[in-house]
Each structure stands twice: as structure tokens, then as C-alpha cells.
Write a structure and sequence with these properties.
The complex is a heterodimer of chains A (114) and B (114). Chain A is mainly β and 114 residues long. Chain A is built from no helices and 12 strands. Classes of the chains: A mainly beta (114), B mainly beta (114).
Chain lengths: 114, 114
């Protein structure tokens, strides 16, 4: 069965410091991976996705994630965080079949401190 | 933002009462989903629909039913609400054809069962 594990439930970090949010997945089929962000009292927004091709994917606001097949990981990184990056981040893998179902990790709360 | 509207946004109900949550989309996407979000669990799929009157169960479907009589509307019903169904419910839509695997999420409905 497919599954996603986010290794940290909370990550506190100071503003302008680098951050890494860890995600490991388990899947026996072709892997499509996603990172979603949820700001307080809002829905989820797609941050970035890996479908195929280059293993390093980037978002428009400075986040990047690297697909590592051998380590079954898709960690999210940002070299310098801002207060506005404070949010909950979810890693997800596309479920089997072509139904668009997503299997989510438990979520990681990024707390950026001034 | 994708055209997804959830109603109501907040609801408090008593144990044993029926509750219906509504999701309305203006994107004409074929697939619609209901997820629940709980601390420590991320988002878990309740039910999904792949067309008018075509629905299927997700991983946490017990105690829930759904209906889709029109492409744009997907209803989630709790036949007899229980305290364990206190959660935040998210509707999502997608059109998972080819490389387009992205899901778009509504703003969520916070349901409290007392």
C-alpha cells in the first residue's frame, strides 16, 4: 500500500535561516509527488510537484524539492525563510489508478520566528 | 483560485443529527473528493466521485455517504453525527488526465459535533 511519512510534526526556525521539511514515501507504482501548503484558516494550495524528468523541482516563492528514488524521499527546502512562510506543509503521493486520489502525510508545521 | 465553494464554512451540530455539507465547483472538473483533516493524520479521503452518480469509497468512509446529481455539486452527508466526526472537511476537484494531476481544494468546513 502507498503511504507518506513526514518525519517532523513541527519545525521552528528563525527568519532568514534555511529549512528542510522531510518527506518519505512508499509506493510500488510510478510516483507522482506533491507538496501543498496550508495557511491558517485556509484550504490547501499546491506548492510544487514532481511528475517526471528533472529530480529537482522549484516553486515560484523559493522552495525546492528533490525526488530521490533510491531513498524514497521528496524533501522540501528553502535557503532563507520569511515570516510569511509560517504555515502547515503537506507532502502527498498520487494514489494508484487514474482517479487523482492523493495520499497525504501527517503534515509539518513550519514556525518562522523573528 | 479554482472555483470551489464549500458551505457552510462552520457548523455546530448535536450528536445523532444528520448533517449535509455541500461542495460546488465552476471548473467542470470530472473528479470531486471529500477529505477530512485531523491533527496528526493529515488529510484522509472519505469518498470521491468520477462523474454524475458515480462515486466510490475512500479510506475513512464509514458513517458518511455522498451524492452527485450534477457535475458541479458534490454533497457529503453524515447520517447520524458522532463526536469522532468533529473535523475540518475539505472538498477537492481534479481532472487527472495525462500529466494534469493537480488537485484544487476548497476553503474547508469546520464541523463540531457536541
Amino acid at each position: 500500500a502507498q503511504s507518506v511519512t513526514q518525519l517532523d510534526s513541527q519545525v521552528p526556525v528563525f527568519e532568514e535561516a534555511p529549512v528542510e521539511l522531510r518527506c518519505n514515501y512508499s509506493s510500488s507504482v510510478s510516483v507522482y509527488l506533491f507538496w501543498y501548503v496550508q495557511y491558517p484558516n485556509q484550504g490547501l494550495q499546491l506548492l510544487l510537484k514532481y511528475l517526471s524528468g528533472s529530480t529537482l523541482v522549484e516553486s515560484i516563492n523559493g522552495f525546492e524539492a528533490e525526488f530521490n528514488k533510491s531513498q524514497t524521499s521528496f524533501h522540501l527546502r528553502k535557503p532563507s525563510v520569511h515570516i510569511s512562510d509560517t504555515a502547515e506543509y503537506f507532502c502527498a503521493v498520487k494514489g494508484s489508478g487514474n482517479t487523482g486520489k492523493l495520499i497525504f502525510g501527517q503534515g509539518t508545521t513550519l514556525q518562522v520566528k523573528p | 483560485d479554482a472555483g470551489i465553494t464549500q458551505s457552510p464554512r462552520h457548523k455546530v451540530t448535536e450528536t445523532g443529527t444528520p448533517v449535509t455539507l455541500r461542495c460546488h465547483q465552476t471548473e467542470n472538473h470530472r473528479y470531486m473528493y471529500w477529505y477530512r483533516q485531523d491533527p496528526g493524520h493529515g488529510l484522509r479521503l472519505i469518498h470521491y466521485s468520477y462523474g454524475v452518480k458515480d462515486t466510490d469509497k475512500g479510506e475513512v468512509s464509514d458513517g458518511y455517504s455522498v451524492s452527485r446529481s450534477k457535475t458541479e455539486d458534490f454533497l457529503l452527508t453524515l447520517e447520524s453525527a458522532t463526536s469522532s466526526q468533529t473535523s475540518v472537511y475539505f472538498c477537492a476537484i481534479s481532472d487527472p488526465t495525462g500529466w494534469n494531476t493537480e488537485a484544487f481544494f476548497g476553503q474547508g468546513t469546520r464541523l463540531t459535533v457536541v
